[in-house]
Amino acid sequence: MKYYSHGFTLIELVITMAVLGILLAFGIPAFNGVIENNRVTTQANSLLGAVNYARSEAVKRGEIVSLQSEVGGFGNGWCVILGPLDGCQNARDNDLLVREFGAIRAVIVDAGGTNGVSFDNRGYRVAPAGNVVIGMQSDNCQANADGRRELTVSTAGRASLTREECE
């Protein structure tokens, strides 16, 4: 009489679980890096979208429109307001607020002292003077890792994102 096996033996199950455990031990830390990178990219793209939105609103409305950081910097959020740089709270109080964006979590924002950008009715940047570069990176970013995003707004109003090494 022949007996046929229709399942797993205990040894096969233990070996499979051991291999799975080893794969997870190496995979989880790498996956955390992917999550951090995606978080920074998402926030940088959100800020890029807000810059482009402010610029298009300036052209559409035929007046100055600004992207302004919240008190404490872009890490605390930002808003699109009508008129020159004057603060998000002041824009809320005077019905000049066009759109708000929430605070950023687990991302370090370095705006280099810039608290906003203004565009005229042709879409050109009118304030601030000089280069506008806003950098973002994960709070766990390792030096020389390729996890920093820099948003640059030219005097012509064109905004672009570049990938840089962490600082």
Automatic annotation (TrEMBL):
What is the annotated localization of this protein? Answer: Cell inner membrane
Q: What is its main location?
A: membrane
GO terms for cellular component:
plasma membrane; type II protein secretion system complex
The General secretion pathway GspH domain sits at: 43-157
Membrane-spanning residues: 7-31
Q: List the membrane topology term(s).
A: Single-pass membrane protein
Gene3D superfamilies under this entry?
A: minor pseudopilin epsh domain
Tell me the keywords, alphabetical order.
Cell inner membrane, Cell membrane, Membrane, Methylation, Transmembrane, Transmembrane helix
Query: InterPro entries under this entry?
Result: N_methyl_site (IPR012902), Pilin-like (IPR045584), T2SS_GspH (IPR022346)
GO biological-process terms attached to the record = protein secretion by the type II secretion system
Pfam families (UniProt xref):
GspH, N_methyl
Q: Which family does it belong to?
A: Belongs to the GSP H family.
What is this protein's name?
Answer: Type II secretion system protein H
The species this protein was found in: Marinobacter excellens HL-55
